[in-house]
Amino acid sequence: SYSGPVEDWSAPPGLPAGGLLYVKSRCGFSRAALLARDNLHLAEQVTVSNVSDDATAREALVKASGSEQAPCLMVGGETIQESADIVTCLLEATSPV
Q1: Whether this model's pTM surpasses 0.70
Q2: Could you identify which of 57, 61, 66, 74 might form a hypothetical disulfide with 49, taking C-beta atoms 3.0 to 4.6 angstroms apart as the criterion?
Q3: Contact status, residue 93 vs residue 78, Cβ threshold 8 Å
Q4: For 45-68, b where at least 16 C-beta lie within 10 A, e where not — what string?
Q5: Which pLDDT tens digit goes with each residue over 74-94?
């Protein structure tokens, strides 16, 4: 058995409440962001809104981010529009420091 020191485990920082992921249909980058959300079990923390199917969602995306670019993650007052950055943000939120 191991008798050395045990490091304290710190919980992952998590995501602020109210995360919203804007996606587009038939978009590989949106698909990558959706897969990261699902694989990290963040369906309850991050709501999805498809701007291809919902004109109101498209208008909200433009108002919040200044463009129609999707995927776009809105979390904690921050807008993240690159799929790789979205995946990184989700990973960092769910990984211990």
Answers
A1: yes
A2: 57
A3: no
A4: bbebbbbeeeeebbebbeeebeee
A5: 998 899 999 999 999 999 998
